[in-house]
Amino acid sequence: WPVPPWDCRRLPTYPPLLPHPPLHPPVRAFHDLIYYEFYESNVKTKKGSNELVEYAIKLPGANPRDKHIYLPIDAKFPQEDYIRLQSAYESGDVISVERSLKSLLQAVKKFAKDISSKYIDPPNTTDFGIMFLPVEGLFAEVIRQPDIIAFLQREYKIVITGPTTLAAMLNSLQ
User: pTM above 0.85?
Assistant: First the structure.
């Protein structure tokens, strides 16, 4: 049966922005949820560094003379660790699940350390950054471990988001 155009199950279609699909999942979220004037892509946020953060939200500066400060957002996807964990779950091997989860969390910690050291530079940026995990299942695996969330926020000043939570965060900043 054909789906009527008013059916809520029908997903909206968008004209292509580029001749090929975007390489990074946050592109669609940014285009849909936040005006282009409020963010920049591939930005040097840290003075004296040549590292480019994927996206940076422009926020008002603390002083009226300050133009703006950046909130760095970097997408990370430890694909091999995540696939290994999913395979371990499917096989039912508890030891393999624990080993794969430990490896996944270590990769996330390394990514958080990289984001913190490369892109966070108060007063040019906020005192925290955002790590975007582009798959809800991956995000769920990481936040299921409450100790790692507290550790990343305390040690590296990194907040982890997934597709849904990034969308909510971007929506709240407007």
Answer: no
Q: How far is CA 73 from CA 8, 57, 101, 128, 134, in A?
A: 31, 8, 24, 10, 12
Dist. CA 89–CA 93, nearest whole Å: 7
Handedness of CA 98, 104, 106, 109 (dihedral sign): negative
The answer to whether residues 29 and 170 touch, using CB atoms and an 8 Å cutoff, is yes
170 and 34 Cβ atoms separated by less than 8 Å:
yes
Give, in order, the Cα–Cα distances in Å from 106 to each of 55, 63, 99, 117. Answer: 24, 38, 11, 17
Q: How many residues are present in the chain?
A: 174
pLDDT, one tens digit per residue, over 64-86 is 777 889 999 999 999 999 999 99
Q: How would you class 35 by CB atoms within 10 Å of its CB: exposed for 0-12, middle for 13-18, buried for 19 or more? A: exposed
Quick: pLDDT tens for 108-167.
999 999 999 999 999 899 999 999 998 999 999 999 998 999 999 999 999 999 988 988
